[in-house]
Design a protein that fits this description.
By secondary structure, the chain is of the alpha/beta class. Helix content is 27%, strand content 26%. Strands 5-4-1-6-12-8-13 form a 7-stranded mixed β-sheet, with helices on both faces. The radius of gyration is 17 Å and the shape is globular.
């Protein structure tokens, strides 16, 4: 079953401390790979899937991100949200405007990390997620990346598949075949037990997993997780 998803949300508020000196003057989403800002790769993924209403949460050097996006994508309907406190984390960043998202996207909305660069397949990754999405049966639908096609290489995953059901890793487990690829569809009801203030979207995934409302789609091409200066160099070389 598929559902028409027409709202996207890009997480862009983080400090990006693992980027070290690269983020002293530039927010992580604006770090460039092959002459393009990281956030641009994800804006263009949404546009390629015909999604032109995009929410972006901001905190660290947020004015630079806002200016960049408004200049480069003047025809996109951006909604910029200033996180009301530092360290709101991924879940809190989305939850702070859940009433508006529920009104605009009652059957679900895309959420993308701003530090993942994906090689696209046909159909596109967002189209495949949308085709697989069943808002009657799912609260969360995650895009999974096989670790053998993940760069930098040598990273472990965080999800197993057991009887065709996703299971997040437990402490001390290793050799995990799939990594959450920073792309998902969330239904507003996935936040029904969410707290006020900081929390991770992982809490939402865990709740959906326990209730058998967590779905997945496997990405079929390479993914570059650009989270460190070394990862920037690898992506520059291989893309």
């Amino acid at each position: 079953m598929s559902s028409n998803i027409n709202i996207g949300f890009i997480l862009a508020a983080g400090r990006g401390t693992r980027m070290r000196e690269l983020t002293e003057a530039c927010p992580k989403p604006l770090i460039q790979v092959k002459g393009k800002a990281l956030i641009d790769y994800n804006v263009e993924r949404l546009l390629a899937a015909h999604i032109k209403t995009i929410y972006v949460n901001l905190f660290y050097k947020g004015d630079m991100i806002r200016t960049h996006l408004e200049k480069n994508y003047p025809h996109v309907d951006f909604h910029f949200i200033e996180d009301y406190m530092p360290g709101l984390e991924t879940g809190g960043g989305v939850f702070q405007i859940l009433p508006e998202l529920t009104q605009q996207a009652p059957d679900g909305f895309f959420v993308l990390n701003s530090d993942m660069v994906l090689e696209e397949s046909t159909p596109l990754s967002l189209e495949r997620l949308q085709q697989h999405w069943n808002p009657q049966e799912m609260d969360v639908l995650l895009l999974f990346q096989p670790v053998e096609m993940l760069y930098p290489q040598g990273q472990d995953g965080n999800y197993f598949l057991e009887n065709n059901l996703p299971r997040r890793q437990k402490p001390n487990e290793r050799n995990i075949p799939f990594l959450f690829a920073g792309t998902q569809i969330l239904h507003p009801r996935a936040f029904r037990n969410a707290p006020q203030g900081p929390f991770s979207l992982r809490d939402i995934y865990d709740q959906a997993e326990k209730q058998h409302k967590l779905g997945y789609v496997i990405h079929q091409k390479r993914l570059f997780h650009v989270g460190t200066p070394e990862a920037v160099k690898i992506a520059e070389k291989l893309l």
